[in-house]
Design a protein that fits this description.
- This protein is of the alpha+beta class.
- The protein is built from 6 helices and 11 strands.
């Protein structure tokens, strides 16, 4: 016996002022258990500042990448980098896509890509500078409208959690890194989702 049922109508599109969706530094401190965090950078368009090897894993270690988002026909985007010195960092992003179907399609595509990166060591190289970083993917798990990856940086041993989530026609993209990280990226994504309302 099925516990699901079909309902008529189409998925509800949501709306939001993207500037009010992202958490500020104090709110990030509350979730991360840090203090003195500051906003390092923010923007409203995707960029592409690193090369990842294997290339298919770019989106697992990089947020708001042009490689991932350029083809989504997103209509708005906002991202922010918040860091507590010598403790950890959070990157948070919200993108508005043209439809609920487009957002779900994007999550499905990225879920397949991320699962293909499980147990991989991803090498990233800064296109401007000469720095290179290696991150091992320790876990990738998916649930409806969401994919979550856990990684740690080989040089520092710093663990990170990365969450990609569809909320109606929005995509939420959050990475949280610090020594005792567990589900903080999920907690931040949940707070962002609460700020996206039916429109």
């Amino acid at each position: 016996m099925s516990c699901t049922r079909e309902v008529s109508g189409s998925p509800v599109k949501f709306s939001a002022d993207l500037g009010t969706v992202l958490l500020d530094a104090d709110e990030i401190d509350d979730v991360m258990g840090t203090s003195g965090s500051e906003v390092l950078d923010e923007g409203n368009a995707p960029d592409d500042t690193i090369e990842a090897n294997p290339p298919r894993c770019h989106g697992l270690v990089y947020i708001a990448g042009e490689i991932e988002y350029a083809s989504t026909n997103f209509t708005a985007m906002r991202w922010r980098i918040v860091r507590a010195e010598n403790v950890g960092a959070v990157v948070e992003m919200v993108a508005q896509l043209p439809s609920v179907a487009k957002a779900d399609e994007f999550i499905d595509e990225q879920t397949k890509a991320w699962k293909g990166c499980a147990d991989e060591v991803i090498t990233t190289k800064d296109k401007v500078g000469t720095s290179t970083t290696q991150d091992r993917v320790t876990e990738v798990r998916a649930r409806p409208h969401t994919v979550i990856a856990s990684t740690f940086t080989l040089s520092s041993g710093m663990p990170c959690q990365h969450v990609l989530q569809a909320m109606s026609n929005f995509v939420l993209d959050v990475s949280a890194c610090r020594n005792n990280v567990s589900d903080q990226a999920e907690a931040i994504a949940s707070k962002l989702a609460d700020r996206v309302q039916p429109g």
